[in-house]
Write a structure and sequence with these properties.
Layout lengths: L13 E3 L5 E3 L7 E6 L6 H12 L1 H6 L2 E7 L3 H11 L5 E3 L4 H5 L3 E6 L2 E6 L2 E5 L5 E5 L7 H7 L1
Parallel strand pairs: 3-4, 4-5
Antiparallel strand pairs: 1-2, 3-8, 6-7, 8-9
Length: 151
């Protein structure tokens, strides 16, 4: 779906997290960022993916990674999702789809024979200088942290 590939400069983005605090790509300058896009809070696959990243968060941090999740959900839904599953990383409330569209992960999907537009589960690993190191379009929700580290 996305046209972005390793070596490309990551789109400059900014948005608000679950607490209304502004978060932008420039905030991660000098750090490695795992930017994971997921369709919806509290759905089975999205929950499994986020919980796998939570369970491996300290290991990812030891390897120098910061994490930021992005979905079209509201700040309030993100607050509830974080509280329910004790996520140690922020979630961007991309209700306007500005960040989602900048990374080109919004488009036609098919589920149970029904076609609709939606967010394609995709993870971008961005280096300290804002360049994309890795693009994961076939996310293994149950083993996503290992998939990122193997990349």
């Amino acid at each position: 779906m996305t046209h972005l590939k390793p070596g490309d400069k990551a789109p400059n983005f900014s948005g608000v997290n679950e607490n209304g605090e502004k978060i932008a790509l420039k905030d991660f300058k000098g750090k490695k960022l795992i930017l994971f896009f997921y369709p919806k809070d509290n759905t089975p696959t999205c929950t499994v993916e986020a919980c796998n990243l939570r369970d491996n968060y300290s290991m990812l941090q030891e390897k120098g990674y910061e994490l930021l999740g992005v979905s079209p959900d509201t700040q309030k839904k993100h607050q509830n999702f974080i509280k329910k599953f004790d996520f140690p990383f922020p979630l961007l409330a991309d209700e306007t789809l500005d960040v989602t569209k900048a990374f080109n992960v919004w488009g036609p999907k098919k589920f149970m024979g029904r076609e609709y537009d939606g967010l394609h589960r995709t993870t971008f690993v961005i280096d300290e200088k804002g360049k994309i190191e890795q693009v994961i379009t076939k996310v293994k929700s149950k083993d996503h942290a290992a998939q990122i580290l193997e990349g």
